[in-house]
Design goal:
The protein is mainly α. The protein is built from 19 helices and two strands.
Length: 495
């Protein structure tokens, strides 16, 4: 559509002149040029050409928005409102999936975002929330429209937590704190400063108390005399007690009262899944079952397994590791799972199937690759193979289906193009902001913080959805007329 619009409008010489006259557009498009230069010393051209296809928005959007007339304030508002409406529609579709009208037996609540990665969806929702907040705060509409705007805002916040997008939630909290700090210094009255300061103090304190209480609940341990454990099941078969496995579920110890023979036999009567394969979350199924039984205080034998209902068997198959995690909307369970992942990783070093701790393995592996190729990296097409080779070389405990890339955009750039490419990438990110700071408006500031923070936890520019989000809104917001206002301190117009 964009290419078609360019052809219909014509005047190609003027478009090229405008594009080459925009230093910012040239700097941003140079990221695509960087990937082209990376072809010189790459070997896997199939991967490289696919990567270039994904990165095309870096060239297309920046060229289009810099070479065509800028959107005025009213047009920009229409685009953002349309975007918010589209996100709301997507959340309603996903909510229908959560209710079971579209998809059945979802193994993970985050899979209700089935049209796009839940992480990328979380970024879109997060940006929509802050855009909607601005429109609500500055609206002069009739009361019933203001109420509708407020309800939309509340719905988006609710759905972000329902989706359990930790990345989106954390970014939202950080951005809220940043804006509160800004308002603290810019607000005029002493009362508003005191009120804002109280929020800034209370929000982190309450967050810490909430996280700490979840950590304490996860790590509670029931008293047990390990020297007096029973050695046989009710059927007379021997138990194995793994006393070195001190993990707990709901205070019950994971590694005791295990009878593999009885569990295997009883499981075959209850499920068609192979117990030595993976559950629907791609976690080791046996570990999921053992954790679920432990969370209920049941032993890992035929008696314990027979005590599970058919619904609980289905929960185990779906990758639910604790009886308390079966609720569809339970943000506490997600927080506790993250703490459990950390504990487990510190104890046995195996991060497989755990989204947070696997990132530690990704970052460690990416850093080792970067140290091998510090100057220019491995090239555009060899990133994936470099990771696979390094996982094999270091005898990583990650299972083969989880051996992925860095999940950190800065590290991915460093692996691909070395320190030279990383420095240029950082320059392209921050140069526009630093050279035009006083003219940055609220929308661009919010977008920039969201995009920047997402790059710490994800390869934002390595997926079609991620690079499109970055390139489209970066170009749209920067080249709109609102960015060219002469009024200083544009961020102030929020409040």
């Amino acid at each position: 559509v964009i290419i078609g619009a360019c052809i219909i409008r014509g005047n190609f010489k003027e478009k090229l002149r405008s594009f080459f006259a925009s230093k910012i557009a040239l700097i941003w498009c140079s990221l695509f040029l960087l990937h082209l230069l990376g072809l010189i010393y790459t070997s896997d051209f199939h991967y490289a050409w696919n990567d270039l296809r994904i990165k095309l928005p870096l060239l297309l959007f920046f060229f289009f928005f810099s070479s065509n007339p800028s959107l005025n304030a009213a047009q920009l508002k229409q685009v953002l409102l349309f975007f918010i409406a589209a996100v709301v529609v997507s959340t309603l579709i996903s909510f229908a999936a959560w209710l079971g009208f579209i998809r059945k037996d979802l193994s993970d609540i985050r899979n209700i975002s089935f049209l796009i990665s839940h992480i990328r969806f979380g970024l879109l929702i997060c940006f929509s929330i802050f855009c909607q907040f601005y429109f609500f705060k500055n609206s002069s509409q009739k009361p019933f429209i203001k109420v509708f705007q407020f309800l939309v805002l509340c719905w988006l916040v609710f759905f972000l937590f329902l989706l359990e997008s930790v990345t989106g939630i954390v970014i939202g909290i950080v951005l809220t704190l940043v804006l509160l700090v800004h308002y603290l210094f810019k607000s005029g009255t002493k009362l508003s400063k005191i009120f804002t300061l109280c929020i800034l103090i209370l929000l982190p304190v309450l967050l810490f108390i909430y996280l700490y209480s979840n950590y304490q609940e996860l790590n509670q341990k029931k008293s047990l005399d390990f020297s007096n454990l029973e050695n046989k099941t009710l059927n007379g078969r021997p138990y194995i007690h793994y006393l070195d496995q001190i993990e707990t579920e709901n205070g019950n110890y994971y590694g005791i009262y295990v009878c593999k023979d009885e569990i295997d036999k009883e499981w075959r009567l209850r499920s068609k899944l192979n117990l030595d394969s993976f559950d629907l979350k791609k976690q080791p199924l046996r570990a999921t079952l053992y954790r679920f039984l432990t969370s209920k205080g049941l032993r890992k034998d035929s008696v314990g397994l027979s005590a599970l209902s058919d619904k609980e068997i289905k929960s185990v198959e779906n990758g639910i590791t604790n009886v308390n995690y079966q609720d569809k909307f339970n943000i506490n369970s997600r927080i506790q799972q993250i703490f459990w992942e950390l504990n487990s990783y510190l104890l046995n070093g195996n991060p497989t199937g755990h989204s947070l701790t696997m990132r530690f393995e990704y970052w460690k592996t990416g850093w080792l690759i970067f140290k091998d190729h510090p100057l220019l990296g491995v090239g555009t097409g060899d990133v994936n193979q470099a990771f696979l080779d390094k996982y094999k070389q270091t005898n990583s405990q990650l299972s083969l289906n989880w051996r992925l890339r860095a999940h950190n955009q800065f590290l991915t750039i460093a692996v691909t193009f070395g320190i030279v490419g990383l420095l240029w990438f950082l320059f392209s990110l921050f140069y526009p902001l630093l050279t035009n700071w006083r003219n940055i408006n609220y929308f661009y500031f919010v977008f920039f913080v969201i995009a920047l923070l997402s790059m710490l936890n994800e390869d934002t520019l390595e997926t079609q959805a991620g690079v499109s989000f970055y390139a489209f809104f970066n170009a749209l917001l920067w080249f709109s007329e609102k960015m060219n206002f002469k009024k200083k301190g544009q961020l102030n117009f929020l409040l």
